[in-house]
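User: Before I run my own analysis I want an independent prediction to cross-check against. Here's the chain; please return only the structure tokens and, at the end, one sentence I can use as a sanity check.
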Amino acid sequence: MPETLNNTLKKLGACADARAWAATQPTRKAAWENCKRSEWMLWAIARSTISPDDQRLRLMACDFAEAVLHLIPAGETRPAEAVRIARLFALGEATREELATAWAAAWAAAGAAGDAAGDAAWAAWAAGTAWDAARDAAWAAGTAGDAARAAQASIIRKYYPNPPRLKAGHNVH
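Assistant: Structure tokens:
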């Protein structure tokens, strides 16, 4: 008997809400195309057969950060500059030192402007691994609610247009 999406999700430890929602979808492809929960999608990517691709994840994190830049007070350019440098870094066109300098400037703006600048700075930094950056950017922007998560889901599908093949028993810490 073929493994169902719901059984695979259960084996991987998906939350009850995700499993219940997935059970309403006719196919894995439909579930991927209809999902509006970016955190579920990132969870699935992390537990899939997809090999980590730092560039793709960093660019996705930059898109997440750009989605919240409108929350930055008018005239404050440091967070947007950090995102720009982060994108250049992902493309191999900026150094780690340039990224660190832009990140520090964006954090300084966060101290002056509040959480929105901090969220953009954190997402742009791509601290640690690109995977951490994408996850953290999704969390930061996701605090804005369902609309932000749905927008992020669209961004995820831009970088991962096909549903990932989940690996039963795969665990990401």
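Sanity check: Residues 54-159 form one domain.
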